[in-house]
Amino acid sequence: MVGVLIAMKVRVLRHSIGGSRAAGMVMGGLAGLALAIGTIVVAGIDGDLLAAVFAVWLFGWMLGPVYTGGGDESVRPEHFSLLPIDPRRLALGLLGTAFVGVPPLVSLVAFSALVVYAGPFGLAAFVVALVAAPLMVVLVVVLSRLMIAVLGVAVRSRTGAILAALVNASMNVVLNQSWVLIWAAIQFDLLTSGFPPSFSAVVRRLPSGWGVAAVEAAGRGDWLVVAAALLGICALIALALLVWSRLLVRRTTSKPLHRVPPGTGRDLAARGPVTAVAAKESRTWSRDLMRTHLLWFAVFFGLLYTLVPLIIGWYGMLPWAGVLVVVMAAATSANLFGLDGTSLWLNLVNPGTERAEVRGRQLAWLLRVAPIAIVFTVAGTIVGGEGWTWPWTLSILAAVLGGGAGLIALVSVAMLVPVTEPSKRSGNPLEAGGIFGQVVLMLLLVTLTALPAGGVAYLGDTLDLPVVSWLAVAVGVATGALLTGWFGRLAHRRLAARGPELLSLMRSGGTAAPGSVAATVGRARVKLPPGKQALVTFLWIFCWIPLFPQGLVPLWTIWTGGESRLWFLALHLHDPWRIPVAVAFVAVGAVMIYYGTVIPNRHDRAARENAG
Amino acid sequence: MTAALELDGLGKRFGPKIAVDHVSLSVPPGSFYGLVGPNGAGKTTSLSMAVGLLRPDTGHARVFGVDVWADPIGARARVGVLPDGLALPERLTGRELLTYLGRLRGLDRATAGARAGELLEILELDQAEHTLVIDYSTGMRKKIGLATALLHGPRLLVLDEPFEAVDPVSALTIRAMLRGFVAGGGSVVLSSHVMALVEQLCDHVAVIDGGRVAAAGPLDEVRAGRSLEDRFVELVGADVAEVKGPSWLAS
């Protein structure tokens, strides 16, 4: 059966891989391969570090599917729910399909670092490593599948959805704020004096470190530990499979029930078309578990992100909790139209409602996000801010609220990601589609909308003029209102002009017709030649490095007078070079983004003109 | 007299496959028009292009003489549409959905509420007051879809498979409602696989096969003295006598 399922998945993949997806796969595979080779290099340095890196791989596997929309669902358990197959066999078969693809191959390369690590420990350790490395790959893949399944079942109630958002946000924050841990490591002088024994013990006790433990034990000739570690991995795999098969049955035999809160359900208190849409939307926000999950994810992310630095006694991030909530909420809401599936047809057959649809959605989003963000900002600034922080936080909050409300409308119309129809979803909020690229783009764009307000606040601080500082708040409100209005208008005009194309995009789900190269997508773009496609993908993947870690973060550190240099090039230089170098990095990042956008557009236009 | 709905050389191609190949039809006002054809013949694609849900590659569609693609607002205000298999705002109850759409169409609150209530009662959806649309059965989804098409009092209804999965009692209600609508001067275009139903309800019929119109006109003209089913089988060129069951399924 495993063979049949794998063949099925390969066929599905072949029908759904278009030119850009294939290029993305190649680039992603190359980036993963670089990380895997890095892991092998680490294997030559230190066992503690290797175990820690393996823990990161495990974490990545468990978190990755959450980012990329519920993992790979090209072969879904629902497809087989009517077949007389034992769920444990089905789980085994589906696990087999999970090994088809680039990530497991890359992971196999990464975990082969164990074999390298085993070299100095002798032949026995080498043999143990040969056994342990593939077992570790199986372990991370099966734990990844289990994680998706657990979240998928947990989020079938509102409480579950909120809890899942909390877990999700915590894991994200740990990855994103790992610099705090690095900082703590520097403070405790770990790099010179080595890791404390407790750290070595902990990373080896995590399942991700059992392979390392087995190899070391084989080197010492401690066969009891070797057996325990290897059998432990096998037992964990078996246990995970068993639980997973149980969850598969629950997933395919139960349906999430939706409860209408008492007191509603009769009427919509709305004055006109815009408020009618807003009323519909706010009900959807509270009743749709996927949206509940996305919204609470943003809330927890903003909160935890700013709380983690308290570990090293830094309160300076607290004032930004509200702003982070807004930015993250905008990023996760940017597929607003996609999430509703083909219900767009109602706007197509109801003449002239596009404006109301867009404005109402913006209004509902603001009503959901703004109160939380304002409370967080005010409370955070009281606790963690100083007098001069107020104009900064308030102006930027106003700017990103407005910018976010504008961008979610525009982006959800301009780069819609097709998602499984709401009525056909299993209730798993992770089925939000492949929105990772959209989320990253939105994080950047929303941040950019804060620039005018931030610039004025900076000017006020530099000139030491409180009036100018407070003027920033007015600028923030003004740019926010302007962007909400302007982007919203662009969005509803585009919706009116391209509505049928968007609808067919949602219907087709972006798959290619069998036997044809051209996708049946409404907004089919002219395909780039492979070289250009690779260049564009490269630009989009790597533009963030000069922009954020080498550009904006050092600027911020210079501005706040921070002392840690880490790997920020600009901070290792002396004045007057620090600021120009950081600015230059920002410029390089911006140029990369510019060309990443312009090259396909130009090619598209040229090809169309030639054709027409 | 201007046709209620006129398809003029509509064509649509998906990749190498020609789904609809220059379909031209004219639906006279006050007629009950049935669209029949085998699976994949292009019925849904044609109807989608006719009401503005799918942009045609060639041709025009006009509702009471107004071009659907040149003047979408003018054309769509006159037509009520029930598409097949599309999503709705799933997290609303039936009543909320209808009131919401009424408000969106510019009806005032009292009118929207009253119409929603009346439609829910006629279609027997009023018991499901606290059920979200996402939890509706297939038949209930059809009925609420039909209600959205009727809400604004259009003069033309375009219904894709309106009777699919609807229980017999509701089907009778819907039929009576549609008959009344036509008797009052409205026009209905519906697609269906059920020949007997089309024969009973419709006065005009078009047979679509392979993206082309195989026959179209008043019902009696098209069936030419025979049953619609026989005529249909002949038009689409199926050889019924040859059809056998799977070999292992025989008793």
TrEMBL record, chain A:
Swiss-Prot/TrEMBL keywords: Membrane, Transmembrane, Transmembrane helix
Regions crossing the membrane: 21-43, 49-69, 90-117, 123-148, 160-186, 223-249, 294-314, 320-339, 365-384, 396-420, 432-455, 467-488, 535-559, 579-598
Keyword Transmembrane: yes
Protein name: ABC-2 type transport system permease protein
Lineage: Bacteria, Bacillati, Actinomycetota, Actinomycetes, Streptosporangiales
Automatic annotation (TrEMBL), chain B:
Subcellular location: Cell membrane
Swiss-Prot/TrEMBL keywords: Antibiotic resistance, ATP-binding, Nucleotide-binding, Transport
Gene Ontology CC terms, in alphabetical order: plasma membrane
Record's keyword annotation contains Nucleotide-binding: yes
Residue ranges of domain ABC transporter in the record: 5-235
Molecular functions (GO terms): ATP binding; ATP hydrolysis activity
Pfam families in alphabetical order: ABC_tran
Annotated InterPro entries: AAA+_ATPase (IPR003593), ABC_transporter-like_ATP-bd (IPR003439), ABC_transporter_ATP-binding (IPR050763), P-loop_NTPase (IPR027417)
Membrane topology of the entry: Peripheral membrane protein
GO annotation, biological process: response to antibiotic
Gene3D superfamilies (UniProt xref): P-loop containing nucleotide triphosphate hydrolases
The protein's name: ATP-binding cassette domain-containing protein
Species for this entry: Herbidospora solisilvae
